[in-house]
Write a structure and sequence with these properties.
alpha+beta, two-stranded antiparallel ribbon, globular
Length: 361
Protein backbone atom coordinates (compact mmCIF):
# COMPACT_ATOMS: atom_id res chain seq x y z
CA UNK A 1 0.00 0.00 0.00
CA UNK A 2 1.10 3.58 -0.67
CA UNK A 3 1.84 5.35 2.64
CA UNK A 4 -0.64 8.16 3.15
CA UNK A 5 -1.35 11.09 5.43
CA UNK A 6 -5.10 11.33 4.91
CA UNK A 7 -6.81 12.62 8.03
CA UNK A 8 -3.63 14.08 9.53
CA UNK A 9 -4.45 17.69 8.57
CA UNK A 10 -7.72 19.44 9.27
CA UNK A 11 -10.24 18.45 6.59
CA UNK A 12 -10.41 21.00 3.76
CA UNK A 13 -7.25 22.82 4.85
CA UNK A 14 -5.30 24.13 1.88
CA UNK A 15 -1.89 24.25 0.29
CA UNK A 16 -1.42 26.31 -2.87
CA UNK A 17 1.33 26.18 -5.49
CA UNK A 18 1.92 28.93 -8.06
CA UNK A 19 4.23 28.57 -11.06
CA UNK A 20 5.79 31.91 -12.00
CA UNK A 21 8.12 33.07 -14.78
CA UNK A 22 11.43 34.94 -14.58
CA UNK A 23 11.97 37.73 -17.12
CA UNK A 24 14.81 40.07 -17.99
CA UNK A 25 13.44 43.42 -16.84
CA UNK A 26 14.46 45.43 -19.89
CA UNK A 27 13.65 43.04 -22.74
CA UNK A 28 10.97 40.91 -21.02
CA UNK A 29 12.66 37.80 -22.42
CA UNK A 30 12.28 34.69 -20.27
CA UNK A 31 15.64 33.96 -18.65
CA UNK A 32 17.10 30.99 -16.73
CA UNK A 33 17.77 32.60 -13.36
CA UNK A 34 15.96 30.48 -10.79
CA UNK A 35 19.16 29.94 -8.81
CA UNK A 36 19.59 33.73 -8.44
CA UNK A 37 16.01 34.16 -7.20
CA UNK A 38 16.28 31.32 -4.69
CA UNK A 39 19.61 32.58 -3.41
CA UNK A 40 18.18 36.05 -2.80
CA UNK A 41 15.23 34.77 -0.71
CA UNK A 42 17.23 32.23 1.26
CA UNK A 43 16.80 32.77 5.00
CA UNK A 44 13.80 35.11 4.72
CA UNK A 45 10.86 34.43 7.01
CA UNK A 46 8.04 33.69 4.57
CA UNK A 47 4.61 32.00 4.77
CA UNK A 48 5.86 29.26 2.48
CA UNK A 49 8.82 28.52 0.24
CA UNK A 50 10.18 29.03 -3.26
CA UNK A 51 11.55 26.09 -5.24
CA UNK A 52 12.71 25.01 -8.68
CA UNK A 53 10.50 23.79 -11.49
CA UNK A 54 11.27 21.97 -14.75
CA UNK A 55 12.68 25.04 -16.51
CA UNK A 56 15.37 27.28 -15.03
CA UNK A 57 13.29 30.32 -16.12
CA UNK A 58 10.40 29.33 -13.83
CA UNK A 59 10.04 28.99 -10.09
CA UNK A 60 7.30 27.72 -7.85
CA UNK A 61 5.88 29.15 -4.65
CA UNK A 62 4.32 26.82 -2.08
CA UNK A 63 2.27 28.07 0.84
CA UNK A 64 2.48 26.31 4.15
CA UNK A 65 -0.71 24.46 5.16
CA UNK A 66 -3.46 27.07 5.47
CA UNK A 67 -6.53 26.42 7.62
CA UNK A 68 -8.61 28.84 5.55
CA UNK A 69 -8.63 30.51 2.17
CA UNK A 70 -8.15 33.81 4.01
CA UNK A 71 -4.72 32.54 5.10
CA UNK A 72 -3.93 31.77 1.46
CA UNK A 73 -5.03 35.31 0.58
CA UNK A 74 -2.50 36.66 3.06
CA UNK A 75 0.35 34.34 2.04
CA UNK A 76 0.38 34.47 -1.76
CA UNK A 77 1.05 38.22 -2.12
CA UNK A 78 3.90 37.99 0.39
CA UNK A 79 5.54 35.16 -1.53
CA UNK A 80 5.18 36.98 -4.84
CA UNK A 81 6.55 40.24 -3.42
CA UNK A 82 9.57 38.47 -1.95
CA UNK A 83 10.28 36.91 -5.34
CA UNK A 84 9.77 40.23 -7.13
CA UNK A 85 12.17 41.98 -4.78
CA UNK A 86 14.77 39.26 -5.31
CA UNK A 87 14.30 39.53 -9.06
CA UNK A 88 14.60 43.33 -9.07
CA UNK A 89 17.91 43.11 -7.22
CA UNK A 90 19.20 41.01 -10.13
CA UNK A 91 17.81 43.23 -12.90
CA UNK A 92 14.95 40.80 -13.43
CA UNK A 93 11.17 40.74 -13.08
CA UNK A 94 8.55 38.09 -12.41
CA UNK A 95 5.37 37.44 -14.36
CA UNK A 96 2.35 35.27 -13.63
CA UNK A 97 0.41 33.68 -16.49
CA UNK A 98 -0.02 30.23 -17.95
CA UNK A 99 2.31 30.95 -20.90
CA UNK A 100 4.95 33.54 -21.71
CA UNK A 101 3.61 35.60 -24.64
CA UNK A 102 6.62 35.17 -26.91
CA UNK A 103 9.27 32.85 -25.41
CA UNK A 104 9.80 29.49 -27.12
CA UNK A 105 9.54 26.68 -24.54
CA UNK A 106 11.98 24.42 -26.38
CA UNK A 107 14.66 27.10 -25.98
CA UNK A 108 14.34 27.21 -22.18
CA UNK A 109 17.13 25.45 -20.24
CA UNK A 110 16.14 22.56 -17.98
CA UNK A 111 17.06 22.64 -14.30
CA UNK A 112 19.94 20.21 -13.82
CA UNK A 113 18.29 18.03 -11.21
CA UNK A 114 17.95 14.30 -11.77
CA UNK A 115 14.14 14.24 -11.66
CA UNK A 116 13.93 16.85 -14.42
CA UNK A 117 16.76 15.53 -16.58
CA UNK A 118 15.33 12.00 -16.54
CA UNK A 119 11.85 13.38 -17.23
CA UNK A 120 13.10 15.08 -20.40
CA UNK A 121 15.02 11.97 -21.40
CA UNK A 122 11.83 9.93 -21.09
CA UNK A 123 9.27 12.36 -22.52
CA UNK A 124 11.37 14.09 -25.18
CA UNK A 125 9.64 16.88 -27.09
CA UNK A 126 6.38 16.43 -25.19
CA UNK A 127 8.27 17.53 -22.07
CA UNK A 128 10.34 20.22 -23.80
CA UNK A 129 7.08 21.87 -24.88
CA UNK A 130 5.86 22.23 -21.28
CA UNK A 131 6.52 25.97 -21.06
CA UNK A 132 3.21 26.36 -19.28
CA UNK A 133 2.32 27.36 -15.75
CA UNK A 134 -0.60 26.36 -13.55
CA UNK A 135 -2.18 26.91 -10.18
CA UNK A 136 -2.26 23.73 -8.09
CA UNK A 137 -4.63 23.57 -5.12
CA UNK A 138 -4.25 20.88 -2.45
CA UNK A 139 -7.31 20.19 -0.30
CA UNK A 140 -6.88 17.96 2.77
CA UNK A 141 -9.12 14.90 2.77
CA UNK A 142 -10.44 13.00 5.80
CA UNK A 143 -9.66 9.59 4.27
CA UNK A 144 -8.49 7.91 1.11
CA UNK A 145 -12.04 6.86 0.24
CA UNK A 146 -13.26 10.42 0.72
CA UNK A 147 -10.44 11.59 -1.55
CA UNK A 148 -11.56 9.39 -4.44
CA UNK A 149 -15.26 10.12 -3.83
CA UNK A 150 -14.46 13.84 -3.97
CA UNK A 151 -12.36 13.44 -7.13
CA UNK A 152 -15.20 11.68 -8.94
CA UNK A 153 -17.75 14.26 -7.84
CA UNK A 154 -15.81 17.40 -8.78
CA UNK A 155 -14.32 16.08 -12.03
CA UNK A 156 -17.28 17.02 -14.31
CA UNK A 157 -17.03 20.62 -13.05
CA UNK A 158 -13.30 21.06 -13.64
CA UNK A 159 -13.54 22.10 -17.32
CA UNK A 160 -15.62 25.03 -16.08
CA UNK A 161 -12.80 25.94 -13.67
CA UNK A 162 -10.44 25.85 -16.66
CA UNK A 163 -12.76 28.14 -18.66
CA UNK A 164 -12.93 30.66 -15.81
CA UNK A 165 -9.16 30.61 -15.25
CA UNK A 166 -8.07 30.57 -18.92
CA UNK A 167 -4.99 32.79 -19.14
CA UNK A 168 -2.73 31.64 -21.98
CA UNK A 169 -3.94 32.93 -25.37
CA UNK A 170 -0.37 33.65 -26.56
CA UNK A 171 2.09 30.86 -27.34
CA UNK A 172 5.59 31.41 -28.78
CA UNK A 173 4.63 34.85 -30.06
CA UNK A 174 1.37 33.82 -31.71
CA UNK A 175 -2.31 34.14 -30.90
CA UNK A 176 -3.40 30.59 -31.64
CA UNK A 177 -7.11 31.11 -31.10
CA UNK A 178 -7.04 29.14 -27.83
CA UNK A 179 -8.02 30.85 -24.59
CA UNK A 180 -5.79 28.31 -22.81
CA UNK A 181 -2.84 27.00 -24.80
CA UNK A 182 -1.65 25.40 -21.58
CA UNK A 183 -4.44 22.81 -21.43
CA UNK A 184 -3.72 20.96 -24.70
CA UNK A 185 0.04 21.18 -24.14
CA UNK A 186 -0.30 19.59 -20.71
CA UNK A 187 -2.35 16.81 -22.26
CA UNK A 188 0.69 15.86 -24.38
CA UNK A 189 2.37 14.46 -21.27
CA UNK A 190 2.19 10.75 -20.56
CA UNK A 191 -0.62 10.14 -18.09
CA UNK A 192 -1.98 13.66 -18.61
CA UNK A 193 -5.52 14.99 -18.94
CA UNK A 194 -8.47 13.41 -17.12
CA UNK A 195 -8.00 10.48 -14.74
CA UNK A 196 -9.42 7.17 -15.91
CA UNK A 197 -12.60 5.92 -14.28
CA UNK A 198 -11.30 3.79 -11.42
CA UNK A 199 -13.99 2.41 -9.14
CA UNK A 200 -12.30 3.36 -5.88
CA UNK A 201 -9.16 4.71 -4.26
CA UNK A 202 -8.05 1.12 -3.66
CA UNK A 203 -8.38 0.31 -7.36
CA UNK A 204 -6.31 3.39 -8.26
CA UNK A 205 -3.72 2.48 -5.63
CA UNK A 206 -3.41 -1.08 -6.94
CA UNK A 207 -2.93 0.25 -10.49
CA UNK A 208 -0.17 2.62 -9.36
CA UNK A 209 1.58 -0.10 -7.37
CA UNK A 210 1.48 -2.47 -10.35
CA UNK A 211 2.97 0.15 -12.69
CA UNK A 212 5.72 0.91 -10.17
CA UNK A 213 6.45 -2.81 -9.75
CA UNK A 214 6.82 -3.46 -13.48
CA UNK A 215 8.92 -0.34 -14.01
CA UNK A 216 6.54 2.06 -15.77
CA UNK A 217 6.54 4.65 -12.96
CA UNK A 218 8.85 5.68 -10.16
CA UNK A 219 5.84 6.70 -8.04
CA UNK A 220 2.41 8.31 -8.33
CA UNK A 221 3.85 11.82 -8.67
CA UNK A 222 4.78 10.82 -12.24
CA UNK A 223 1.07 11.05 -13.08
CA UNK A 224 0.06 14.49 -14.37
CA UNK A 225 -3.72 14.30 -14.46
CA UNK A 226 -5.91 17.40 -14.11
CA UNK A 227 -6.73 16.18 -10.60
CA UNK A 228 -5.02 13.45 -8.62
CA UNK A 229 -4.75 12.01 -5.10
CA UNK A 230 -1.59 13.03 -3.26
CA UNK A 231 -1.32 10.44 -0.48
CA UNK A 232 1.97 11.72 0.97
CA UNK A 233 0.30 15.05 1.73
CA UNK A 234 -3.13 13.60 2.49
CA UNK A 235 -4.73 15.81 -0.15
CA UNK A 236 -6.68 15.90 -3.35
CA UNK A 237 -4.59 17.99 -5.76
CA UNK A 238 -6.54 19.99 -8.35
CA UNK A 239 -4.22 20.96 -11.20
CA UNK A 240 -6.62 22.20 -13.90
CA UNK A 241 -6.51 26.03 -13.47
CA UNK A 242 -4.29 28.20 -15.64
CA UNK A 243 -1.92 30.32 -13.53
CA UNK A 244 -3.70 33.62 -12.73
CA UNK A 245 -1.88 36.92 -13.20
CA UNK A 246 -3.87 38.73 -10.51
CA UNK A 247 -2.84 37.21 -7.18
CA UNK A 248 -6.32 37.96 -5.83
CA UNK A 249 -7.73 35.59 -8.44
CA UNK A 250 -5.26 32.88 -7.42
CA UNK A 251 -6.81 32.96 -3.96
CA UNK A 252 -10.31 33.10 -5.43
CA UNK A 253 -9.74 29.90 -7.41
CA UNK A 254 -8.21 28.20 -4.38
CA UNK A 255 -11.30 29.15 -2.38
CA UNK A 256 -13.58 27.91 -5.17
CA UNK A 257 -11.81 24.55 -5.29
CA UNK A 258 -12.07 24.24 -1.51
CA UNK A 259 -15.80 25.04 -1.54
CA UNK A 260 -16.29 22.68 -4.49
CA UNK A 261 -14.65 19.86 -2.53
CA UNK A 262 -16.70 20.65 0.59
CA UNK A 263 -19.91 20.57 -1.44
CA UNK A 264 -18.89 17.28 -3.05
CA UNK A 265 -18.16 15.64 0.30
CA UNK A 266 -21.59 16.79 1.48
CA UNK A 267 -23.17 15.11 -1.58
CA UNK A 268 -24.37 18.42 -3.02
CA UNK A 269 -22.93 18.35 -6.56
CA UNK A 270 -24.98 17.17 -9.53
CA UNK A 271 -22.92 15.08 -11.91
CA UNK A 272 -22.62 11.63 -13.36
CA UNK A 273 -21.70 12.50 -16.94
CA UNK A 274 -19.22 10.11 -18.64
CA UNK A 275 -15.52 10.78 -19.11
CA UNK A 276 -16.21 11.33 -22.82
CA UNK A 277 -18.18 14.46 -21.88
CA UNK A 278 -15.18 15.64 -19.87
CA UNK A 279 -12.89 15.35 -22.89
CA UNK A 280 -15.28 17.44 -25.00
CA UNK A 281 -15.72 20.05 -22.26
CA UNK A 282 -11.99 20.28 -21.56
CA UNK A 283 -11.31 21.06 -25.21
CA UNK A 284 -14.13 23.59 -25.45
CA UNK A 285 -13.03 25.38 -22.27
CA UNK A 286 -9.45 25.59 -23.56
CA UNK A 287 -10.58 26.86 -26.95
CA UNK A 288 -13.20 29.42 -25.93
CA UNK A 289 -12.69 30.17 -22.23
CA UNK A 290 -15.79 31.70 -20.68
CA UNK A 291 -17.43 31.87 -24.12
CA UNK A 292 -17.46 28.08 -24.35
CA UNK A 293 -20.58 25.97 -24.38
CA UNK A 294 -20.25 22.97 -22.09
CA UNK A 295 -22.17 19.77 -21.55
CA UNK A 296 -23.82 20.13 -18.14
CA UNK A 297 -22.18 17.84 -15.54
CA UNK A 298 -25.49 15.98 -15.26
CA UNK A 299 -25.21 15.21 -19.00
CA UNK A 300 -28.65 16.57 -19.83
CA UNK A 301 -28.01 19.89 -21.55
CA UNK A 302 -25.50 22.00 -23.50
CA UNK A 303 -25.10 25.38 -21.81
CA UNK A 304 -22.97 28.56 -21.94
CA UNK A 305 -20.04 28.41 -19.55
CA UNK A 306 -21.07 31.72 -17.98
CA UNK A 307 -24.50 30.28 -17.10
CA UNK A 308 -22.93 27.13 -15.70
CA UNK A 309 -20.52 29.26 -13.66
CA UNK A 310 -23.42 31.15 -12.11
CA UNK A 311 -25.01 27.81 -11.23
CA UNK A 312 -21.79 26.52 -9.68
CA UNK A 313 -21.30 29.64 -7.57
CA UNK A 314 -24.81 29.18 -6.22
CA UNK A 315 -24.21 25.48 -5.54
CA UNK A 316 -21.03 26.12 -3.53
CA UNK A 317 -22.45 29.18 -1.79
CA UNK A 318 -23.46 27.43 1.45
CA UNK A 319 -20.06 25.73 1.78
CA UNK A 320 -18.26 28.99 1.00
CA UNK A 321 -20.27 30.78 3.69
CA UNK A 322 -19.40 28.06 6.20
CA UNK A 323 -15.72 28.26 5.23
CA UNK A 324 -15.66 32.07 5.37
CA UNK A 325 -14.67 32.43 1.72
CA UNK A 326 -17.75 33.92 0.06
CA UNK A 327 -16.09 37.30 -0.51
CA UNK A 328 -12.98 35.67 -1.96
CA UNK A 329 -14.95 33.55 -4.42
CA UNK A 330 -16.93 36.66 -5.31
CA UNK A 331 -13.83 37.96 -7.12
CA UNK A 332 -14.54 35.47 -9.92
CA UNK A 333 -16.60 36.92 -12.76
CA UNK A 334 -18.76 34.21 -14.37
CA UNK A 335 -18.48 35.85 -17.79
CA UNK A 336 -14.79 36.90 -17.74
CA UNK A 337 -11.33 35.35 -17.75
CA UNK A 338 -7.84 36.83 -17.81
CA UNK A 339 -7.20 35.62 -21.35
CA UNK A 340 -9.50 38.48 -22.41
CA UNK A 341 -7.11 41.01 -20.86
CA UNK A 342 -4.14 39.55 -22.72
CA UNK A 343 -6.04 39.74 -25.99
CA UNK A 344 -6.26 43.52 -25.60
CA UNK A 345 -2.49 43.80 -26.11
CA UNK A 346 -1.30 44.94 -29.53
CA UNK A 347 1.75 42.64 -29.47
CA UNK A 348 3.22 39.81 -27.43
CA UNK A 349 5.76 42.27 -26.01
CA UNK A 350 2.95 44.53 -24.84
CA UNK A 351 1.19 41.53 -23.34
CA UNK A 352 4.36 40.56 -21.44
CA UNK A 353 4.77 44.09 -20.08
CA UNK A 354 1.18 44.04 -18.84
CA UNK A 355 1.73 40.70 -17.12
CA UNK A 356 4.71 42.09 -15.21
CA UNK A 357 2.67 45.12 -14.12
CA UNK A 358 -0.29 43.05 -12.90
CA UNK A 359 1.61 40.17 -11.28
CA UNK A 360 2.68 41.86 -8.05
CA UNK A 361 0.12 43.53 -5.81
Amino acid sequence: MIPNAFGESSPLSLGVEEELMILEAATLEQVPAVDRILRRVEGRALPGRLKTELFASVFETNTFVCATAAEVDAALPVLRRAAAEAAAAEGLAIAAAATHPFARPEAQPIVKEERYVTFVGYGGISVRRQGVQGLHVHVAMPSSDDCWRCLDAILPWLPLVLALSANSPWFAGELTGMASNRAPILAELPRGGPPPAFGSYGEWEAWVERLVQIGVLEDYTRIWWDVRPHPALGTLEVRIPDQPTDVRLATAFAALVQALCATALDGGLPGGSPRADYVQNRWSAARFGVRAKLIHPDGGSFVPAADLAAELLELVGPAAARLGSSTLIGRIEPAACEADLQLEAASPQEAAADLVTRSVA
